[in-house]
Amino acid sequence: MVSVEEATGVVLSNLFKPPVHVVDLNDAYGAVLGAPISADRDFPPFNRVAMDGIALWFSELKNGRKEFTIEGIQRAGQPPVNLSDVKNAIEVMTGAVLPEGTNTVIRYEDIVIQKNVATIMSDAVKEGHHIHRQGSDAKQDDILLTPGMILSPAEIALLASVGRSDVPVFSFPKAAIISSGDELVEVNEIPELHQIRRSNTYAIQAAMKNIGWNGTQYHLHDQKDFVIDSLKVIEAAHDVLIISGGVSKGRFDFIPEALEAIGVKKLVHQVSQRPGKPFWFGVSKSGKTVFALPGNPVSTYMCFYRYVMPWLYKSLGVQQKAQWAVLGDAFSFEPDLTYFVQVSVCNENGLLVATPEVGGGSGDFANLKRVDGFLELPKGRKTFNKGEPFPYWSFR
Ligand SMILES: Nc1nc2c(c(=O)[nH]1)N[C@H]1C(S)=C(S)[C@@H](COP(=O)(O)OP(=O)(O)OC[C@H]3O[C@@H](n4cnc5c(N)ncnc54)[C@H](O)[C@@H]3O)O[C@H]1N2
Ligand code: MOO
């Protein structure tokens, strides 16, 4: 049995190398950027007028002139006009290029215009006011976005502004989501007394969809040869297998044996954690990744967020930000295991406070509906204090 930290270390050193494909800018939201994006021009690309008003040559104002004849207008979208006489000014619009021969913008609010003459009413005008300087935000060829960024609306705006209508993004690994167990029937079936509907693969699929990842669902009956043959075919056709169930010690828990039979090397089996102790992880001969998550629904769920998601993010170069929350109530847990306690969270004066909602164990997935995530309470301790911070794994 290995610790959570050891298991994490193994999982995160067996990553998927994602290929890059191109998507239309309109479809890029939420995708993971697959190549660096640089500025094709300075940001802003020209000295940009930042307020509607007039532009003039500041020395004239400094030397005492208060009245400036307006000799023209500079609209946004027009090439720069030229101030021909420093005693004059040019009306300028926000977003326009600063007219040549001017170096200061004064807002309409600070002037009075009568008969084409602007009188400056403010004493607070400073040289260079209200000009968004060329290159002040970024220089041409600066790297604006790096691979591994999840594209939010902010990045979409940058991609648009540098002319990237085709966006290179990382492809997600092709995933198989596999359930196993003869007690499981399809969602649209009426189960017999001894049966239940399968729900874990749907939960995994939904968790994946949340980040734009898709998988194909399979179900395996508890028949050893069938499991071996099916896994062989599925392994060949996917980059990652996410299996739920059949990994503990039951007579019909064939998954570890079947995986080894098809050449998947076991790298982790059994982690000193609750839930999810029978967690299994391995890599096939052809480099495919296999997660076999313990079948109890809460265990599957927890292991997906604690191991599969970090693996995916690291594979795609995404920096997963560690989250912490403080324990809302004192808590005790006797076994010498890392305990992922189900918690509901709320924000109290800027602090994320996690209140344990233990529920009825790892089979009680009805409890998950009132829970926001898991708080990771370390092994080697029995009591945990109210107000103490611990890593928090959110699924909302
Ligand atoms: N002798 C031992 N028995 C068990 C141990 C152990 O260490 N020694 N570990 C227990 C723990 S902890 C867990 S977790 C489970 C995990 O077992 P499996 O991975 O083999 O899971 P199954 O037995 O197939 O299923 C467990 C439970 O979950 C239900 N299940 C499975 N798949 C689904 C699904 N897709 N949707 C909904 N529910 C699912 C299944 O019906 C079982 O009730 O083993 C303990 N036993
Ligand atoms: O540890 Mo198991 O994953 O609790 O039911």
TrEMBL record:
Gene Ontology terms, MF aspect: metal ion binding; molybdopterin molybdotransferase activity
Cellular-component GO terms for this entry: cytosol
Pathway linked to the protein: Cofactor biosynthesis; molybdopterin biosynthesis
EC numbers: 2.10.1.1
GO BP of this protein: Mo-molybdopterin cofactor biosynthetic process
Keywords, sorted A to Z: Magnesium, Metal-binding, Molybdenum, Molybdenum cofactor biosynthesis, Transferase
Domain MoaB/Mog residues, every copy: 176-314
Gene3D superfamilies: MoaB/Mog-like domain, MoeA, C-terminal, domain IV, Molybdopterin biosynthesis moea protein, domain 2, Molybdopterin biosynthesis moea protein, domain 3
Family of this protein: Belongs to the MoeA family.
Alphabetical list of PANTHER family matching this protein: GEPHYRIN, MOLYBDOPTERIN BIOSYNTHESIS PROTEIN
Reported function: Catalyzes the insertion of molybdate into adenylated molybdopterin with the concomitant release of AMP.
Protein name: Molybdopterin molybdenumtransferase
Annotated source species: Pseudochryseolinea flava
